[in-house]
Amino acid sequence: MATEPDIGARLDRAPWQRLHTTILIALGAGWLFDSFEVQMFSSAVGPLGDHFGASVFERDAVLAVWLGGILIGAVVGGSLADRFGRRRLFVATLLWYAGFTVLTGLSPNLAFVYGFRFLGALGVGAEYSIVNAAISEFMPVRVRGKANALVMNFWPLGAILAGLLAYFALDTLALSSAVSWRYMFVLGGLVALVVLFFRRRIPESARWLASQGRTGEAEQIVQTLEGVQAPSVPLADETSRPVTALSTRSALAELLRHYPGRLALGSLLDLAEAFGYYGLFALMSVVVLPQIHISQSGIPIFYIIGNVGALAGGVLMASLFDRVGHRRTVGTCYLLSAVAVAVLAIATQSGSTLWVTLAFVVANGVGTAAWTSAYPMFTELFPTHLRGMGVGTSVAVGRIGAIVGTLALPTIASDLGATASYSLVAAFWLVGAIAVGVAALNGGPDPSRRSLEDVAPLRAEPVLL
């Protein structure tokens, strides 16, 4: 009977099948609707705040609550995915956050909005861990990086759809503030359920099954992905060995003991991109848009154009990811993101709507290329039985950057000026680039076109990078 490394090697060599396409779309669609819901809130928070008479702080607190929920959900979801499998969590997290998104639209007061947003964010945080872990484990090695990056790039597509909905709901339909935000949340939650049509077809990760000693079931799924007619019932496996699932604390302890450098790299990359990406949008609303005097009705169009740039940047990166190398791509994109923020600062000072729009397209494009390349890279650095927890912990650290960036940058811009804010955002992107450079100098592996079992075998001794 096949061993765990054998299962991984066969998955890496498998020809592209229709099931691979289904998995890519199903997991990417989850990111699309996560983004759709997040971006939709940016358009809905104004009418929502007006409806409940919320102060600026109370409106910002809704976002902070959301990011805090993602932080907790990423760790818990990653741990659950490592203990109970990827497939169960695919459906559970989707139903969870879709349900609480609908309930947000039905909230009778601001307290319920806080509660439902936090609960919904737990599901989104879990998605970060589960989707990234699963897509790496399914895809053949020759296209794993490209497939991972394409899944991540469903995010800007969701942002574009959210911008279109906001434009029609808030402008074309001219709905009152009392109902427009409710329609957006309810519709967003219901539409997300479309993903269930695709996700019900995703099998369990064969790599995860093998890591749990369930090699008979893993063999059946591998045969399907190889294009072989698999038996209708799991193959008998007399050599199966039951594996005790690690608790959250035990999994984190093992990561810190055996993979401290890799966990540090993942955490720094996510911290840098979260601060840089969310910080960019915080500066847009507080510094940039007031400077160029875009009308309220023109803001959704401005963001739609910016997210078209994000999609273009991410897709271009995906096409080069495996050829250029994962580590080199990530480091270059983080460095370019820092430069793009500086260009945006110069464009803002010019006061030209055209130059600011072009600069935002570029900044959003390279920023999206940066974070959509970073996730696949650090996901590949952890072994299968710890992958969900490794990604979840990295994402949790990153959400701290998102919270600080979103809440602190407006104050910094007000007290110290826009230049200080731009400099801080650029500095965080540079931190990510430096972290990749340090990993390279210390001999850390570049995961591109290498088997996951080769990049992250289960070891008894510590692995620094």
List the helices and strands and how they pair.
Elements: H1 4-13, H2 18-52, H3 56-84, H4 86-105, H5 110-138, H6 144-152, H7 154-172, H8 177-192, H9 195-199, H10 206-211, H11 215-225, H12 248-258, H13 260-292, H14 299-324, H15 326-350, H16 353-379, H17 384-416, H18 418-441, H19 452-455
Subcellular location: Cell membrane
Domain Major facilitator superfamily (MFS) profile: 23-444
Pfam families: Sugar_tr
**Helical content band:** over 70%
CATH architecture: Up-down Bundle
CATH domain class name: Mainly Alpha
Evaluate the radius of gyration: 22 Å
Q: How far is the first residue's CA from the last residue's CA?
A: 32 Å
Instruction: Estimate what percentage of residues fall within beta strands.
Output: under 5%
Helix count from the secondary structure assignment: 19
Shape: globular
The count of DSSP E runs of length 2 or more, i.e. the number of strands, is 0
What's this entry about, in short?
With 465 residues, this protein is an all-alpha fold.
Keywords, please?
Growth Hormone, Chain: A, mainly alpha, 465 residues
What do these coordinates show?
Helix content is 80%, strand content 0%. The model has no long low-confidence stretch (mean pLDDT 86). The protein has one domain: Up-down Bundle (Growth Hormone, Chain: A), CATH 1.20.1250.20. By secondary structure, the protein is mainly alpha-helical. α2 packs parallel to α6, α13 runs antiparallel to α16 and α13 runs parallel beside α17. The chain is built from 19 helices and no strands. It is a multi-pass membrane protein. It is found in: Cell membrane. InterPro entries: MFS_dom, MFS_sugar_transport-like, MFS_trans_sf. Keywords: Membrane, Transmembrane, Transmembrane helix. This is MFS transporter.
